[in-house]
Write a structure and sequence with these properties.
The chain has 346 residues and is α/β, with parallel strands linked by helices. It folds into 2 domains: 188 residues, Medium-chain alcohol dehydrogenases, catalytic domain (Quinone Oxidoreductase, Chain A, domain 1), CATH 3.90.180; 131 residues, NAD(P)-binding Rossmann-like Domain (Rossmann fold). It is built from 11 helices and 17 strands. The strands form 4 sheets. Strands 3, 4, 5, 8, 9, 16 and 17 form a 7-stranded mixed beta sheet that branches. Strand 10, helix 5 and strand 11 form a beta-alpha-beta unit. Helix 4 crosses helix 5. The protein is globular. The protein starts with a strand and ends in a 5-residue tail after the last strand. The model has no long low-confidence stretch (mean pLDDT 97). It binds zinc ion (ZN) (2 copies). Keywords: Metal-binding, Oxidoreductase, Zinc. It is an enzyme of class 1 (oxidoreductase). It catalyses: a primary alcohol + NADP(+) = an aldehyde + NADPH + H(+). Belongs to the zinc-containing alcohol dehydrogenase family. Its cofactor is Zn(2+).
Length: 346
């Protein structure tokens, strides 16, 4: 099956309209008519070869929502017409300890990314900037009725990437949570942490998005350009979620953690970060990382967002605006996630 898509043919070429092949619908597969696909910063890093070699031509996109158009003979979880989503992975070994624990993102044999990965049948996966996708039912999520498609899309990466660490480190009533950076990931971290009942502080370079941050549920907002911030908030937070993918002066941020506090990274700077271990001795602090979430937890996140009435802030674009949108993402000129209307791929 050939479907319209946008792809890049090299690390330096723009994304252009093309067609890609989707596998025939197998017994456990679901064919999805894509409605919207979000633009994640990872799409840009990947397609430009910044995170290692990738197979070209490549179609990216791992924030996918749409409607089930066809199901395989053995599919029990979904029916034609269901509202569904696909996130950052489309397969895993399903046998290792982590897969069996429902943490497929940490599959010991490597989860299969939604794009640019070699699937277990040997084909290269192609992402969501396309009209249709075929995915095994076990890696498909149900999108609650109350979340509009275009707003649901970014939940599949930005939503779960922030929900999972907030959930794991027990953000909730009585906990002080800081979110570093108010971009695609950060704005979801603020909304989710607030909905979980935590006291939320945004740490952003400047106060330029302060009104937005407070409207999203932040209780406090500080500029990290102002050194005073690091004195005022010393030994203060139970959890810091760092969504920034540029290197930070870690010592300053770790100093903000209270007893048993954790700073978890969900943004990924490509270069190593130096860490002063003495900073961790104080208050028995931890420095951690977290990667997306398992399928079960992703469904829990979607249901949580529906129940709490929270959703990303999005700007819908047409497919021909993708390259321009990339430039704007790189300049942080987006409030707060671009979502491609897949109807414009027709
Ligand atoms: Zn992503
Ligand atoms: Zn596994």
């Amino acid at each position: 099956m050939h479907v319209n898509a946008y792809a890049a043919s090299s690390a330096t070429s723009p994304l252009e309209p093309t067609t890609i092949e989707r596998r025939p619908v197998g017994p456990a597969d679901v064919l999805i008519d894509i409605a919207y696909a979000g633009i994640c910063h990872s799409d840009i890093h990947t397609i430009r070869g910044e995170w290692g070699e990738v197979p070209y031509p490549l179609t990216v996109g791992h924030e996918i929502v749409g409607t089930v158009a066809e199901v395989g003979a053995d599919v029990t979880k979904y029916s034609v017409g269901d509202r569904v989503g696909v996130g950052c992975m489309v397969n895993s070994c399903r046998e290792c300890e982590n897969c069996r624990a429902g943490e497929e993102q940490y599959c010991l044999n490597g989860n299969i990314g939604t794009y640019g990965a070699v699937d277990r049948d040997g084909t290269v996966t192609q992402g969501g900037y396309s009209q249709k996708i075929v995915v095994d039912q076990d890696f498909v999520l149900r999108v609650p009725e109350s979340i509009p498609y275009e707003k649901a899309a970014p939940l599949l990466c930005a939503g779960i990437t922030t929900y999972s660490p907030l959930n794991h480190w027990n953000a909730g009533p009585g906990k002080k949570v800081a979110v570093v950076g108010l971009g695609g990931l950060g704005h979801m971290a603020v909304k989710i942490a607030h909905a979980m009942g935590a006291e939320v502080t945004v740490l952003s370079q400047t106060l330029s998005k302060k009104d937005d941050g407070l409207a999203m549920g932040a209780d406090h907002y500080y500029a990290t350009k102002d050194d005073e911030t690091f004195t005022t908030l010393k030994n203060h937070f139970d959890l810091i979620v760092n969504t920034v993918s540029a290197p930070l002066e870690l010592k300053k941020y770790l100093g903000l953690l209270t007893l048993n506090g954790t700073m978890v990274n969900v943004g990924a700077p490509p270069e190593p970060l130096p860490i002063q271990v003495f900073t961790l001795f104080t208050n028995r602090r931890s420095f951690a990382g977290s990667s997306i979430g398992g399928i079960r937890e992703t469904q829990e996140m979607l249901d949580f967002c529906a129940e709490k009435g929270i959703a990303p802030e999005v700007e819908v674009i047409s497919a021909e605006q993708i390259n321009e949108a990339y430039e704007r993402v790189l300049k942080s000129d987006v409030r707060y996630r671009f979502v491609i209307d897949a109807a414009t791929l027709a």
